[in-house]
Each structure stands twice: as structure tokens, then as C-alpha cells.
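Team,

Forwarding the record for the chain on the shared tracking sheet. I've put the sequence and predicted structure together so nobody has to dig through attachments.
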Amino acid sequence: MTPDGIIVRKLDTAGDEKIRYPGRVLERTASAVVLEAFFSRERMELGYVTLKLGDRFVEYFYADRWYNVFVIYDVDNGRLKGWYCNVTRPAIIADGQVSAVDLALDLWIAPDGSVLVLDEDEFATLPLAPEETAAAKCVFASGKAASRCVHSIQCARYAWP
């Protein structure tokens, strides 16, 4: 792995690894990492967005926040597809690796500003401690959740070349 290479691990609430993929570190601070990764699966029709092999993801992971944010760009034309905000436990950022425990609840923000909350039913069934449930729900506690999510990143900084 190169010095700026990183492995991303998505974990379930039991700590079992569900997904692992490589990325490249774009920026790192004491409590966050910004990385670039490329979608490596076949085409996925999600209803609100289509993900294609090679789509560019600029991913923001935070060790002090209950979410991460993926800015997704189209492989064919570089256009912004939208922002995908995952509700997670705070990320564990280590040398060469970032891990996040997925809490199922997600937020999709389209380029036109429309917002879609995803997987509320799955979130409701997770075996979480009451304080974890409260912390996760705080991400969406106000009508400004979407703008907080998007404005917490500087997506133009890492726009498609």
C-alpha cells in the first residue's frame, strides 16, 4: 500500500466486517480523514440514484461525529450525483485504516437539495443502547440536518478534475 493508501472497513453493530475497500487519503486531521475511493461493484439501481462501476466517492470520516458523508460523482461525466450521509458510531481512524460501525439510518441529498431518509425501519430493530439511539437520532433532530451534513464538508475542494 502507498503512504496515502487506506483501507475502509464498514462494520455491523456486532463489530463484524461487512465491506472492505481501498481508498486514497486526500486530507487528514486529528479527528477526521477525507479519502477518495471508486465504486467497485456492478451497476446498482437504488431508486433514488444509480451507482456505476468507477463512480468516484469522496468520503469524510469523523472520530468525533455520529455520521460520515460520501460525495458521489458520476464516472462518465464527473457530475455530482449527491451526498450520502451514513449514521454511524464515531469512526476509528488509525494508520492505514478507517472503520465505522453502520447504524443503518441514512440520509440521501440530491443535487437539487431534495432529502430522503433511508432505512428507518432497519435502524429501529438494531440492539443499541439508549444513549446510542439518542446520539444517532440527533443527526436528524432538526430540519437543518441535511444542510448540516452537507455544509460540514467542502465538496468543491475535491471536485472531479
